[in-house]
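User: Hi! I'm working on a homework problem where we have to compare a predicted structure to a textbook description. Could you give me the structure for the chain below?
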Amino acid sequence: MPPRRDPEQPWRAEGVPDRQDGRAPGLRGGGWKPNRNNAVFWALLLVVFGLSYVSMHLSGQKERVTVPYTAFTQQVAAGNVKDVYTKGYQIQGQLKSRQPVPGHGEKTYTSFETLRPAFADDKIYTEMVQKGVEVEAKPVNEDRGLLANLLLSLLPTLLFVGLWIGVMVWLQRRMAGGGGLMGGFNRSPKPVAADDKRATFADVAGIDEVEAELSEVVDFLKDPGKYRRMGARVPRGVLLTGAPGTGKTLLARAVAGEADVPFYSAAASEFIEMVVGVGAARVRELFTEARKTAPSIIFIDEIDTIGRARGGGASMGGHDEREQTLNQILTEMDGFSGSEGVVVVAATNRPDILDPALMRPGRFDRQVAVSPPDLEGRVAILGVHTREVPLAADADLTSIARMTPGMTGAELANLVNEAALLAVKREKGAVDMDDFQSALEKVQLGTRRSLVMPFEERRRTSYHESGHGLLGMLQPGADPVRKITIVPHGRALGVTVSTPDDDRYAYDERYLRGRIIGALGGMAAEELVFGVVTTGSESDLEQVTKIARGMVGRWGMSQKIGPLSILPADGSDPMGQYAAQGTLDAVDLEARRIVDECYAEAVETLRANRDKLDSLAAALLENETLDEAAAYAAAGIDRTIREVDLSKSHH
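Assistant: Happy to help. Predicted structure tokens:
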């Protein structure tokens, strides 16, 4: 991403023209700037320590020592007294040469004071005149004035304030650089290097329908005049929704690059600080800078961080930092005029929790759903990410796309990168199909573990995975089995991979029951062959429970519950929907009924095809990993004709 112009800005700028005066956007004074006020800080510290030195010097340069009167008369007799000042019985004076303090041999003095006893009848004045002592009319040592006393009394406070300012500035600089505590007042991510080439629609593949939706925005930014002549207004805000990794941020950058306009991007969380009002001020500054360089685009990622519906339990009152930031965004977007030419693009994967005021026309006028790509889209995305990757002759992007249904653009990019890393590790000159298959296995199954299992454990695992695979082969409409392995990957001791030939967007009850039966195949095989059930079915049961409850509580596939949506969607607030306890109990009973029926069918199917199960398990135990062709051959099932035969027998 392009760098920021100011380290304090919580946004990144791309394609912003330089100012004529040489100032970067956003530098308008005000507030403490750690990188700009270092001289002020050091000057302040220098003044504090200078005052401390002067005060200590004033306090110590004329320190008087109280001496006995007899010591004073002895110094007068010795002719060592330079001058004196008397007030009543008090005598102050200064010696010509330094003398040791009586009773303190190591300490010496020149300035002294003493008291003349009332009973003394000596002629000290006559003796001082004879010795040439000068009798002053004013004190020999002046007491410190009001200013000096004030400085001495305030010295500890000044030192403490100087130390506190130094510590706060140090912490502020640390927090501005990204290493602060609790986020800091001026926290912002570190600048990053600018791209050599701005993103365009040529860098976006697999989502042509979304590009068409955004082409109007690009056309408006290029030529706003023709829209104004027709009285048309471009959408002020475009909300991109979709799963993570589908390319929402890349789309926003491509729109700005295609229109060749300045692009400001920020994550919504970067506006939130612990001090109320900081986020709103940053929003105001961002929109001000965007208007100065209009036409331009503002992109706010993960806007649900600050755009949640107000009045929820997460809010501590009506004026917290999150709500103030949201209110400022609402005000800035609603304050646009048609001639400003600033378009706000935001991205989220939780549009259901956004505030209604943010979604109304005039703010985010248009919602664009960015879905995972289909087969053709995945081929195009793989083509984009392999432009700079040398491919072997057998690397077929269409075949790879068929093996990756449901993968997003980010996941496909990661797949290509993993394949390239494997090719480097294997010292190849190009990435071949074997590298892609190994990378896909690593991405889907996890990293292979070098775990040595006892023979009985391997045999039980082979039957468990064979149960999954065989039921997947026999169930009508089930996804074809692509690979079966008993080599430990990640947390699993074995894995069965099944993916559809074509992309699926809706599922009927028969398909979902087949999914449940296939997932229960491992447990059914263990019970049928060994008479026991192990803990290896934990993840299978989680999947089964999720599907069965969805069939009953969300998709209306139960006659007893009927066409009702009782359970919240995945990822939604579990308290978002309410149902009577009796209804929830009925959902649980229906889900249990479906699972029990599917489990009984799984056991019965495996019992009727025990020979195929034994054959598949033996082949798996011998080879450890079977690909699609080998798995169907070991089970004795012809994949090309099985669906026709099974559909006929089903009817």
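For your comparison, note the following. The two ends are 58 Å apart (CA to CA). DSSP finds 22 helices and 14 strands in the chain. Good luck with the assignment!
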